[in-house]
Amino acid sequence: MDTKDDVIGSAGSRSPDGIADIKSLDSDALKLAEMGYTQDMRRNFSVFSVLGVGFSLTNSWFGVSSALVTGINSGGPLLIIYGIIIIALISICVGISLSELASALPNAGGQYFWANELAPKKYANFASYLTGWFAWAGSIFTSASVALAVGSAGVGCWQLGHPDLYKAHCDKSVVAPKHVVAAYQIVNVFAFIFNCWGKTLPMVASVTLYTSLVSWFVILVTVPATAPTHQHAKFVFATFINNTGWSQSGIAFIVGLINTNWAFACLDCATHMAEEVARPEKMIPIAIMGTVAIGFTTAWFYSVSLFFSVTGDFNDLVNSPTLVPILALFYAALRSTAGAIALESLIMATGIGCQIASHTWQSRLCWSFARDRGIPGHQILSKVHPTLDVPIYAHVVSCIIVAALGCLYLGSYTAFNRFVLLFPFMG
Hints:
Elements: H1 4-7, H2 27-34, H3 47-58, H4 60-66, H5 68-73, E1 74-75, H6 76-104, H7 111-118, H8 121-161, H9 163-170, H10 177-194, H11 201-226, H12 233-238, E2 241-242, H13 249-262, H14 280-308, H15 314-318, H16 325-334, H17 337-371, H18 378-381, H19 392-406, H20 408-411, H21 413-426
Antiparallel strand pairs: 1-2
C-alpha cells in the first residue's frame, strides 16, 4: 500500500498541492479535510438512524436465533445464558475502544485508517493494508451468513407448512441445499436493491430498528405464554451439553463461545458511517455503545424466555426436518403451524433488516478502502454516484461476491459455515 499522501482517493479527495480546500466547509467537512479527504457523501443520517444501521447489523437476539443449533451442541443453555454476559462485557471494552478512536478520528475507513495513523511508521502501510482487506472480507462473509440464515428460515417455513408436498417434490422430507441457495440469492438481491438509494437509507435503518425491537417483544411474550409446559430454573441456568467431541468441558465452553460472539459481531459498523452523519465524533460512540446495550438486553432476556419454553428433548430441535431449530421450538410451544411460521416471519423480517445493514457496511468499507487505493480497480470502486448518493460500484461488486459465495453451500455445508462463522470476527 502506498503512503497515505499518495493513496488518498481518486474521487477528488485531495487537492493537487496536497492541501484540501477548506473554504465554505462546515465543521464536520473541515475535520475530514484535516485528515486529507473531501466530503463525498451527504450527511443524511441522524444518530438514531446510525444506531439503526449498527444495531440492525449486530442484532444480538437475531444472532442467538440463527446460531441456536450450534449453541445447543456446544454448551447448551448454560453456554448461551452465561456466554452472552461474558461476550457483552468484552463487547463493552471493544465498544469503548472503537468509540474513542471514532471520536478522535471519525473516518469511513475505520480500523484500517486508524492502523495507518497509529501504527509505527515502519509498519503503518502494511498494517493498514492488511486490516483493510480483513475488514472488507469480514463484511462480505457476514452478509453471506445473514443471507443463509434468512434463506434457511424461509425454506424451513415452507417445509413446515407443506411437508408432504416438499417430500413429493424432493424425494425426502428435509430441506434441500439447492432451495436454501435459491432463497439465499433472493435475500441478497432484495437487500441490494434497498441500498441503491442513499436518501432512503436513514429511513430504512430506522424502520429496521423498530422492526427488530417489536419482533423481539412479540416473541418474548408469545412463546412462554403459549408453551404447554415450562422448564425449571436448573435446566435454563445450569444445563451444560457437550456434543463438540472435546472431552474437557472447559475447552468445549470456550469453543462454544464463538456462537454468542457471533451475536455481538460487527460492532464497528457505525464507524464506517462517520462521513454520513453530523457530529460523528459524538454520534458514532452513542451508536456503538447503544448497540451493545440494546444487544445485551434483548439477547439475554430472549434466550432465558426461549429456554424456559423448550418442550421435549433438545434433539428434537437439532434434528428438525426444517433444519431451523428456532422454528421447531416455536412449533412445539404454540402447537400451531401458522403461529410458528408467523413468529419465524418476524425473525426473517429482522434478518432482512440485518442484511440491508450488512450491505451498507460492506459497500462503505469497499468504497473507503478503494478511495485509498487499497483494492484493484480503485478508480471505479472509489466513485460515489452523484444522484443515488451511494458508492454504487463498490456496492455492486461486494454483492456479486456475496452471491458467488452462496454457491459454496451446494458443495460443502461444513466449509461454508466455517467461512461465514470465522471471517466476520476478522472484520
